[in-house]
Amino acid sequence: MPIVLRCHPGIGPAVSGTALVAADNFSARYDLDRSRGIFSRPSHKLAGESYVNRILVLDGAKGGVATAWMLHDMAARRIVPLGLIFNRVNPIIAQGAAFAGVALVDRFEADVTRLFRTGDELRVDPAAGTVEILKRDS
Amino acid sequence: MRLSDEEGAMLAGKLGAPRRWAIAHQIVIGEFFDAADFIAVGQAHVMADTESLGEAGVRFLEGLAAAPEPDRRVRVPAITDPRGIDFAVYRRLGQSAAMAALERRAIAALSAFGVLMTDTCINYQTVMAPLRGEHVAYGDTGAVIYANSVLGSRSNFEGGPSALAAALTGRTPRYGYHLDASRRATRRFRLTAAPRDLSEWGALGGIVGEACCSYWQVPLIEGLAAAPGSDALKHFGAALASFGSVALFHMPGITTEEPVLAVAPPDPIPIGAADIAAFLARYSAPGDKLDVVVFAAPQLSLHEIAAVADALDGRQIHPDTTVIVATSPEIKHAADRMGLTARIEAAGGVVAQGICFYQSYAREMAEANGWTRLMTNSAKLVNILGGYGYRSSLASLERCVDSAVAGKVL
Description:
- The complex is a heterodimer of chains A (138) and B (410).
- By secondary structure, chain A is of the alpha/beta class.
- Chain A has one domain: Glucose Oxidase, domain 1 (3-Layer(bba) Sandwich), CATH 3.50.30.
- Chain A has helices at residues 28-31, 67-76, 91-100, 112-115; strands at residues 3-11, 15-21, 32-33, 38-39, 55-60, 83-88, 103-108, 121-125, 130-135.
- In chain A, the strands form two sheets. In chain A, strands 1-7-6-5-2-8-9 form a seven-stranded mixed beta barrel. In chain A, strands 3-4 form a two-stranded antiparallel ribbon.
- Chain B has three domains: 5-180, Aconitase, domain 3 (2-Layer Sandwich), CATH 3.30.499; 184-280, no CATH class; 283-406, Aconitase, domain 3, CATH 3.30.499.
- Helices cover 43% and strands 12% of the residues of chain B.
- Chain B contains 17 helices and twelve strands.
- A five-stranded parallel β-sheet of chain B has the order 10-9-8-11-12.
- In chain B, α16 links the parallel β11 and β12 (391-394).
- The chains are: A alpha/beta (138), B alpha/beta (410).
């Protein structure tokens, strides 16, 4: 039976896809090469990984306001994450997700970087405030 | 969210398409953060550099700007954060004609809203500082944390779309640092030695930022015997916001609000000279060939530009090293008038206006110029540039200038 985890109601459309998880933080400007679609910051735990069409599961937001515009431009160029799951975001991540139409949820009852694993197939429903683990390799 | 009659009219499109988009965007954000209603703002500060906007963002602005003038004019004074291009120096920095063309389109669209093109992240030093208790919608993390902490005004981080929305509606959702409950200190730190220069103030911001590591943490910093000055707290706050996403700090006797602790006071974490030295040492690279020295992030005050000019007087920058100074147009004009720009240029430096290095296609500039090793006195800048492929060193202004003259990191 699928596992359903509850969170605060979020932003954006319901999406289904594959999780990419790290106990690290996020900024589109600080961490990404937005022309190649990869994490480019050498010290980031996802350095070298493609974020395109993945559901990113991370701890929180880094500084900077650029993500508020950048997610929209990344979406227009189809080089954007499918969804965002955080423990708790700052306003910039929320504003960026809202402007770009990217699914975003946060505020779960436990640490999302432990609840979810890289490779999990997830369904994120921001309006309902739920994330369902559809499939997990044992 | 509770909406007033006017807010309802905006949402219904009765006040034009731009205000309908703006209030709808703000309601999504407000409901996400459980805001009960809106609050009026006195100013908006719009971040809209073209590297972040991209072609899609510029097209979005142009679409809103095509509305009839009464529908698109901002309702409160609105100004801009640094842009991506200084048209006087962009070719010298290796930026392209296509970047400049996109910049011109963005400027035309923003101007059509009535946004004033101040192109600065130090608006609190150069344009108009907000008052204690004044609610604003600021769009640069360094400007937000300075306004919240040093001045006692109230803002959340408002990214470009949200700051523009606030300018169009004249309000913002009431959550986060607009509320008393969010402004209580949650962490304590005690300084055992005061930072000695701006790079060390930035390092201190980095140390506290990494310890807090959340927008929702508010650090209380004790142990300072004397007010350190505006540029010191500018670098401290910018680094704290960059490393920790922090939007408010308290320094008893120095910042504006009497800090209230959110919980029973925890034991303060001591920070001393050895901690600051260790932070700086993370970026040490003595002997490395030096490609570019940047004084920016935040843009420089007039006093900082004078310090750069003093340090360069009678010297020549190494031919294989580029020195860039970035400031606001207003400070650039003052520096021109007072001869500071000429003194920096005589040594071989570039003084750019209205940009900040990391908002100016830093990756493309590195590729065009073959830059890898960068040196700066800005902790914020070294933190940002890791993802852009730079290897950055952090040191005092004087050591940065000495290194630029030597052509290698000293």
